[in-house]
Amino acid sequence: MKVVGIIPSRYASTRFPGKPLAMIKGKTMIRRVVEQAWKSKLDAVVVATDDMRIADEVLSFGGQYVLTNPNHQSGTDRCCEALDMLDEQFDAVVNIQGDEPFIDPRQINLLVDLISQKETQLASLAKRIDEEDDLFSPNAVKVVMDHEGKALYFSRSPIPFMRNLAQNQWLEKGAFYQHIGIYAYKAAVLRQIAKMQPSKLELAESLEQLRWLENGLSIRMAVTDAINVSIDIPSDLLKAEHLAKTQTLKEK
């Protein structure tokens, strides 16, 4: 099975315009994302962008890009267009966040392994929650899974609800998982979900993966212990600089 990693990368971010070109210890953020993806078992890595400034940067370090429509509502839609623009045929796609310059290649490999299984339609990742702030934060999306590792539901609320227990006991008594927003899709499934209309649960929680569940698709989950760091606003670059320095020391 041939799997391509597609990195959606927009220039006009509301909170951080030009974010993909932000410098982190001598390298642009998009370059760091691509280089991490190159370390995985993907057959190819492609940046899907709407801006020639990003495209030129990708070319400068030997990467591959496609120019996509600037009006996509989600990274999933951008990935679908990018897939259809490629000269080479791929059986599956991993959608890699363009604002995670330190993504662990092992996470990508987990998704490649899952999506390569015949019965898997979609795949994603989760991490065990060990901080109470994450459990109750609406910004940390939670997921519950069945015994086979398929997602049952995603929510911004803590799930499951621990009845008859004080909230400060929930982490001690239960197992909670935070969803990590990286996805893999069979190529045919990606084209299918790009045509789906927004669903009631999706609109309620503002989570596009609920649209897929509501339409009867299954999402296989793998549990990882790697910590993802996303760059959302300019002040996050200080944190990124520190991580880049730490990573460089480890590689030496």
Describe the protein's architecture and organization.
The chain has 10 helices and 11 strands. It has 252 residues and is α/β, with parallel strands linked by helices. It has one domain: Alpha-Beta Complex (Spore Coat Polysaccharide Biosynthesis Protein SpsA, Chain A), CATH 3.90.550.10. The strands form 2 sheets. Strands 1, 4, 5, 6, 7, 8, 9, 10 and 11 form a 9-stranded mixed β-sheet that branches. The protein has a two-stranded antiparallel sheet with strand order 2-3. The mean pLDDT is 92.
Characterize this entry briefly.
The protein has 252 residues and is α/β, with parallel strands linked by helices.
Quickly name the level 1 CATH class.
Alpha Beta
Mean pLDDT: 92
The residue fraction in helices comes out at: 25-40%
The helix count comes to 10
Layout of helices and strands, plus pairs?
Elements: E1 3-9, E2 23-24, E3 27-28, H1 29-38, E4 44-49, H2 52-60, E5 64-67, H3 75-85, E6 92-95, H4 105-115, E7 122-128, H5 132-136, E8 142-145, E9 151-155, H6 170-173, E10 177-186, H7 187-193, H8 200-205, H9 209-214, E11 219-223, H10 236-251
Parallel strand pairs: 1-4, 1-6, 4-5, 7-11
Antiparallel strand pairs: 2-3, 6-10, 7-10, 8-9, 8-10
Provide keyphrases for this structure.
globular; 252 residues; two-stranded antiparallel sheet; Spore Coat Polysaccharide Biosynthesis Protein SpsA, Chain A
